[in-house]
Amino acid sequence: MQEIKVLDGGFSTQLATHVGDIIDGDPLWTAKFLVTNPEAVIATHLDFLKAGADIILTNTYQTSIDSFSKYMNLTKEESLNLFCKAVNYAKEAVSLYKKSIENGKCVPNSNPLIVGSVGPYGACLHDASEYTGKYCSTLSREILMDWHRPRITKLIDSGITMLAIETIPCKLEAEALVQLLKEFPNIKAWMSFSCRSDSKSIADGSNFQDVAIHCYKKALPGQIVAVGTNCIAPQHVSSLLKGINENPNQEFIPLVVYPNSGEKYTVENGWKKNEEGYSLHQFIHEWLDLGVRYIGGCCRTGAMDVQKIREEVVAWKNK
Known about the structure:
Radius of gyration: 18 Å
Largest sheet: 8 strands, parallel
Helix content: 25-40%
Number of strands: 10
Distance between the termini: 14 Å
Order of helices and strands: EHHHEHHEHEHEHEHEEEHEH
């Protein structure tokens, strides 16, 4: 059986424990702290590592040339260099974590992996369109590829060997990214989609399983290591995944899941408290049974959630 990897949690949620600032309302979101408070970025990565994450994602989800030019008056070169800095901050956290092992502290993973976060075009529009995909109706595949290419190139040039292509809301952008990945044949990636909570569709209305399986099979052989969903309420995950790996005569497709806490977000009001009482931890065994091999948390989940996820993964393995 393929090894199960525990991912980190919501970067902004854990970062807030170090900076105390309002992060969600900022158009650069956590990316601004690459410039203003790199120590907090490193500390946040380290929190997740100590909690048991096998994989940490770079703080580059909402990083773009356009955004840094607009909101911080940086040049194109300065903006691209922030991708390199983001990778270096993650590397520094790993180095600090490994020193804690040398000092004899009990830690669950001695060789964590740094994965480059690649958010959708919509994340940088700061209008929550990563949850609708509405921008895809006005953009071409070529425009989306050209927009993503320098970001991915810089992450790879900085030493990244795996990408987290995440919160993708529309079929067009997913297909553009699969095509773009072929320009980097030595790079692995997972692709997770922004999905509707009340259906089996991604945000633009396309069928989730059709798009996810299509992308998995259209990529270079072995290039996409998993497909799945992130930043969705945990109680809606299983209905999206059921059926993908039910037929033992068909190829097993590894799945990736990192839901949010179940709270709802709007640009106007921010996060609204979860009133339904669901916890992502209660579904972990069910997701693993469905073929999830990469599992973590997204918005409103922190280091404590990662620790609980790891405990549940260990319990599932020992059943």
